[in-house]
Amino acid sequence: MSEHSLEHELRWHTSYWPLLLSVGILFLAPLAFTFYFVYNKPFLAIVSLGVGAPLTLISIAGWVKEGMEDIHGYGEGLSVWAMPFFIVAEALLFVGFFAAYWVMRLSAPVWPPAGTPEMPLLVPIVMTIILVSSSITIHIGEKRLEEGDNSGFLTWLGVTLVLGILFLAFSAFEWTELFHEGFNFKTNAYSTAFFSITGFHASHVLVGVGIFLCVLLPALAGRTNVAFVRSASMYWHFVDIVWFFVVSQIYFW
Amino acid sequence: MKDRSVILGLILLAPIILFSTAHAGEGIPDPRAGWNELWHELMIDITLIGLVFAGVTVYFMVRYKRQRPDEEGGSFKLTPLGAFGWTLIPAFIFMADDIFLAAKNFELWNDYRNVPENAYVVEVEAYMWGWNVKYPDEGIEVNNEMYVPQGRPIMVRLTSRDVVHSFFIPDFRVKWDALPGRTTYLWFYPKERGEHVMTCTEYCGLLHSNMYGKIKVISQDEFSSWIEKNKKEGGAV
Amino acid sequence: MSVSVESLNYQSRFSLKEWIFTTDHKRIGVLYLIGSFAAFFLAGLMAMLMRTELSSIGPTITENPNTYNVWLYFHGAAMILGYQIPALTGFFANYYVPLMIGAKDVAFPRLNALSVWLFWMGIVLALLTFVIPDPPDIMWTGYPPYSTMTPGNTALYTFTVLLIGFSSIAGGVNFLTTIMYMRAPGVTWNKLNVFIWCILAAFIIQLIFVPVLGVAVTMLSLDKYLGTNFFNAAMGGDPLIYQNLFWFYSHPAVYVILLPAMGLIYEIIATFSRNSIFNYKGILYGGIWGVVLLGGIVWAHHLYIAGIPDWMALVHVFLTLLISVPVGLMMVGLVGTLYRGSIEYKTPMLYAIGFIFLFLIGGLTGIPNAMSAIYIHITETYWIPGHFHYVMAISVTTAIIGGTYYVFPKLTGRMYHEGLGKLGFFIFFIGVNITFFLTLLMGVKGMPRRYYDYPQFPELEGIQQITTYGSYLIFVSAVIILVSWIHGLVAGEKAPQNPWGSRSLEWTHAPSPPPPGNFPRKLELTEEWSPYNYGS
Ligand code: HEA
Ligand code: HEA
Ligand code: CUA
Ligand SMILES: [Cu+2]
After folding, report:
1. Is the Cβ pair B177, C306 closer than 8 Å?
2. Is the confidence at residue C478, as pLDDT, over 50?
3. For the domain bounded by A77-251, which CATH number is listed?
4. What is the reported pTM?
């Protein structure tokens, strides 16, 4: 251990972003939801979002920037090993939702229950194709990065992002269609499962897109972290795999 | 080391040997009596286990108290065989007790769940915060009161109008949840005349603790005349 | 080495910035400690109010049952989610894991800081209970359909659980990675402190089961505020879905609490008996992993009479009873570690010994619960609070307080006052036994839990009253314990590096208190090194 590093070690390390991020999250979700849905105060809800959203975004940006600079010299290299643990937890979230769906479905006298319109089957197929392609494109991008081909990486990452956003657009489109047909959260047990599971999956796609943005923006400025990219793409593959369950269980069963 | 395990095992198995004499039950079983009996055995069982562990602990506490400040422990290490023995032997002893208890439980559970054929059926609908007691054959409804004939098994069918409640008669050692959207049941066997508390044991809001009533066990004759009287008056009491 | 630890004076000045923005595991641990003890004291004060209310039939200190229900809601939720889980998997895990495995810090220090602050946001949210006009009154179990119909604020419950749950998941990812990949050379799997194994097991459980709880409470708010039908029987939903999902997490959660607490007790007993752990591998592979394996498949023992199928009840009876095997092995290990030891009765050791007795009562009173037929009478009566206060509230609190006395010199660099410490212990021990033994007794007599009042059981008023007096004794002991810590903190003697003569890394290789980066010198561990290598 060199003298310099010892001196460095013997200082308390700090970072602003964890605390700010947690405050941001508090305003963004719990408080905004509570104001809007519990107390019917849309104005306060918007104020709360107005505080929470920027705080969250700034903190994430600051966090990523700090991580790229890696001022403390340890940690993030292990993210490839940590991501599988996180994925286990994520998978169990879906297990919870699916378990509820299966119980409701298997105990129902008739399925689908009254009030369910004809479900579109083309849209989910298209969405499947989009998501599977995006898994392939990010894989190619990852390979390019490992080969040291930075611009190739950027291109494929960009394509992946576009596909992810396209997927979300389809999702939104489908939801609006269904709402117009009078099929919403309240309709019946199927609508409950349908909207919660597809919605929850879409929120994961959204998070995935967010993570890729956190990779893309620094990468445009020439900074990438291979371990981080690898874990991000691992996450994306996971979201893709979950989609197979969503499609097979919710749409085609 | 082995000897000790054997002794420990015998002590732990003692309750099994002592109580494996099956309780004689003729005709209709009475879950209340069965419960009291099994409870008694169980208390002896777990008390013995507790005393063995606590006794050994107290003995070690006194025996191995530090005598000099610089005294070291024996740094006692098990041989691989010893480790196996100290894992498997206690495990099997504990498991033996578990199997014994599970078997005992199975018997009693069946008594609780198999309703005798001649049982008198009463329907109870729980609501926030009270019990609506119905006599389906007679078209009678009573609130927070249940009259039942002495000497006949009573089956209660439970439903709920709103949230989850639980129907509890402490004196008869029975309770079961009442849920919206499905029917559950329990039965009990009032052998003597008397009054008993029925009360709610699943948290259901503001007046959860006030959701109680009386069960009145009356003789067969009194019960028949009670039925007749209320039938004439057109149901509600 | 020319830069000495002292010359840098990393301790001497207090900087608020270096505390609230810290990413150091020891300081994050302290932040957890403060939060979790605040939750404990507050929830404990709620318990005092509840006990006072119960000391006589009819209104005693409040006329409104809802007030009592909110106290009880807060008491249960804060004690479990705000106090015990954060104290164990937050404070003790943070403080000990890097020190015991010889690492500079955890794998992701900033994620660690996020964990602690999410936990704090959860506390902030929980405190809103006392501010809003419609506090949650749904008990810590939050069963629907009551929780989706109540005028109380169920969203507050949902989000408190979600914030603390997310904090736990982040902690799980962090600590599993740390323990698996950051052990110093020489700290091999079979030489890890038992406490580290317990933490590893606890976080595996958290990682698998917390998400399921998260889903369950999310569905509550979806049902209540967005009108979905998960638990609405009239629309094809089923309240039992919630009960199953909730207990699928909340049963394993009791082992998230128990395992680290037992781990602390092992460390204390080994140190104060100067003895190696009895049957280390049996405890590890039979005990800890047995608990992890069985813990996830016994949840229906909370639902025997809730309307589940008979076969499911009977399977869960047997599996639940089987848990006595791994836990029993762990108890054999605890008692066995005393064998041929050299036992010294300092305050932490008193708590550790107390744990053995209290946990025996608590664990063994779980056996009747596990038996479905016996359960029918005692479920939802005071027997259940009796059982879980013994096993969780009391045993585990004993471990937490004892563990805090044990780290005190390392944590603060000062010694606590031995006499005050012992006094606190004895009053605590007497108080809890009066309070909770009588609670068990009332349960057998049929006193239902979650009752604001009990006019239907007039004969129980006397016992209720003595129980309340017992609980005042606990309060007195809590104050003494708190005073002994504050006294130690401001006026205690300076602590040596290793006051207990332990062989574990945090005592042998790190100064009291440890500097940033923990170990001033590079660790060089010999073949013979082991955290329990006594007598040589
Ligand atoms: C730290 C917390 C903790 C721990 C460790 C335990 C441990 C156990 N618990 Fe407990 N329990 C709770 C916390 C805990 N519990 C809580 C909070 C509730 C109530 C929740 C609520 O409704 O609000 C509850 C409720 C609860 C119920 C449901 C009651 C109801 O719904 O009304 C049941 C039922 O089976 C149960 C059983 C057990 C068993 C069998 C164990 C076993 O793990 C115990 C094993 C230990 C021993 C057995 C003792 C040591 C072993 C030996 C000495 C070996 C020899 C022994 C034998 C062979 C028997 N518990
Ligand atoms: C870890 C968990 C834990 C702990 C430690 C405790 C601790 C205590 N609990 Fe509780 N309890 C639960 C978990 C816990 N409890 C749960 C989960 C429930 C079920 C909830 C439900 O039904 O949903 C419950 C329910 C419960 C009931 C049942 C009520 C009912 O069903 O109606 C009762 C009643 O006696 C009770 C009492 C107590 C008492 C007297 C203590 C005492 O040991 C408390 C001692 C602590 C103190 C006295 C604090 C001292 C404070 C200070 C020193 C601060 C001083 C400083 C300043 C003022 C700055 N608890
Ligand atoms: Cu009805 Cu409690
Ligand atoms: Cu349990």
Report:
1. yes
2. yes
3. 1.20.120.80
4. 0.94
